[in-house]
Design goal:
five-stranded mixed sheet; about 30% strand; Outer membrane lipoprotein wza fold like; 4 helices; 10 strands; about 190 residues; wza like fold; alpha+beta; three-stranded antiparallel sheet
Length: about 190
């Protein structure tokens, strides 16, 4: 019982700690410079527990940033990585449900990123990890003839102010980002 209370406390403090992390820390980069993927509204996740068919779930993250998981109820899953969500679910399942759960969380469908301005086919496109601004522009049909290759701005999905910032072609994008390519006058 004491171990169960300690695990619950650890989980509580970890969640509180995450709530107060600056968003840049939530989007830490891996060794190769690609940002770790954090879950957000609109992602579709698959959760599996080895040997427990009743705990299989495929679910789209709701507008409230939650999913409903068997035994555990509503879980807030936005702004955490799939690996971290695995740890949360594992910890909660160990707390009174299973002895040694083997949990895996996979992303089945990523939310979109958006490209507008001076590209051939502006719009929303499915995100995939490792996409740079250059690749995003290619997916959107490439630059139009009058596009500026230096005046490219990005609005990060997690920026509470929605501030547009200049960005280079080799910068990695995140899901929900809005990329705007300005027109060149010369």
């Amino acid at each position: 019982m004491s171990q169960s209370i300690n695990n619950s406390r650890i989980l509580f403090y970890a969640i509180v700690f995450l709530l107060f992390l600056p968003s840049e820390q939530l989007h830490a980069e891996t060794a190769n410079g690609v940002p770790d993927y954090v879950l957000g509204t609109g992602d579709v996740v698959r959760i599996q527990v080895y040997g427990e068919e009743d705990l299989y779930l495929e679910s789209r993250v709701s507008d409230r940033g939650t999913i409903s998981y068997p035994f555990l109820g509503e879980l807030r899953v936005t702004d955490v990585t799939p690996d971290y969500l695995e740890k949360i679910i594992t910890s909660q399942l160990k707390d009174g449900y299973l002895i040694n759960p083997k949990v895996s969380v996979d992303i089945l469908e990523y939310r979109n990123f958006y490209v507008n301005g001076e590209v051939e086919a502006p719009g929303g496109f499915p995100f995939q990890p490792g996409i740079t601004v250059r690749k995003a522009i290619s997916i959107a049909g490439g630059f139009k003839e009058r596009a500026s290759k230096e005046k490219i701005n990005i609005i990060r999905d997690d920026d509470p102010n929605g501030e547009s910032k200049p960005v280079k072609l080799d910068k990695y994008i995140r899901p929900g980002d809005i990329i705007t390519i300005e027109e060149s006058f010369f």
